[in-house]
Automatic annotation (TrEMBL):
It comes from Dimorphilus gyrociliatus. Gene3D superfamilies: 3.40.630.30. It is found in: Cytoplasm; Nucleus. This is N-terminal methionine N(alpha)-acetyltransferase NatC. GO terms for cellular component: NatC complex; nucleus. Residues 84-233 form the N-acetyltransferase domain.
């Protein structure tokens, strides 16, 4: 009997790796003020908003599901989808494609230094999706200690080319990133997204993320952010 599950591409998940899904909570009322002078870009690097408003204690476990079974649900049939390959970031030559994809959909573009901060420090947590040699999706993450006690994964950027959306490519990139962070010992995974970004909210909530905080006027365009969280253990 095999001891690991092989994804359609090249990822191996050890049996028994589990993460906990929490009940999808009600959107909380907490409003966290934007730090004066801090842009979203600075905040996402510093990861500033912290636990006085955390709602962990108010939530209950809904169920526990293995990453293997989660991945199985995302298996995609058909030759067309199988030709969409995910690969790890290799080197600086991947940078322009990542920036092109992410910049296209951002309300506030990041500087090259922000991309380099994430990708150079955590190259193993950056993945790209390809249709043959065309880059059509990217995800950029980091994994850091939070308050010296929680090993926190953070999804900083995610984008899929408009012509390729609704084909589970975004979900596959997120799953791949979760997997890499879990294997590196993440206790939890967080991200922020605009409160109006229904696609992203649906995608992440389908994968078990819950709404953890509302960040008031987090983005330069004045839109609030939602902090989403996935508890691993
Ligand atoms: C968000 C984004 C990455 C989703 O990528 P994708 O490859 O289309 O996502 P998936 O096909 O994996 O969709 C998974 C689920 O997300 C939800 N979803 C995706 N696009 C949606 C849309 N336009 N409207 C509503 N729900 C949507 C659905 O629940 C979908 O499952 P379903 O197709 O079975 O209903 C993509 O729309 C994108 O690049 N948006 C611009 C950048 C962005 O907003 N990034 C996220 C920042 S946090």
């Amino acid at each position: 009997m095999s001891t690991a599950v092989q994804e359609s591409e090249d990822v191996i998940i050890p049996n028994g790796v589990e993460y906990t899904e929490r009940k999808i909570g009600e959107l909380n009322d907490y409003i966290i003020p934007q730090e004066p002078g801090n842009s979203n870009e600075e905040n996402m690097i510093k990861n500033v908003y912290e636990s006085e408003h955390d709602l962990d204690d108010e939530r209950e476990d809904l169920k526990t599901e293995t990453i293997e079974s989660k991945l199985k649900k995302l298996e995609i049939d058909g030759d067309t989808e199988k030709r969409i390959r995910l690969k790890n970031y290799e080197n600086e030559k991947d940078m322009p494609e990542i920036m092109r994809l992410i910049t296209k959909d951002l309300s506030e573009p990041y500087s090259i230094y922000t991309y380099r901060y994430f990708i150079h420090n955590w190259p193993n947590l950056c993945f790209l999706a390809f249709d043959e040699d065309k880059c059509i999706g990217a995800i950029v993450c980091k994994l850091d200690w939070h308050k010296k006690i929680v090993h926190r994964g953070y999804i900083a950027m995610l984008a899929v080319d408009e012509d390729y959306r609704r084909r589970k490519i975004g979900s596959r990139l997120v799953i791949r990133a979760i997997q890499a962070m879990v294997l590196k010992g993440a206790d939890e995974i967080v991200l922020e997204t605009e409160v109006t970004n229904k696609s992203a909210l649906n995608l992440y909530e389908n994968l078990g993320f819950v709404r953890d905080k509302r960040l008031f006027r987090y983005y330069l365009n004045g839109i609030d952010a939602l902090r989403l969280k996935l508890w691993i253990r």
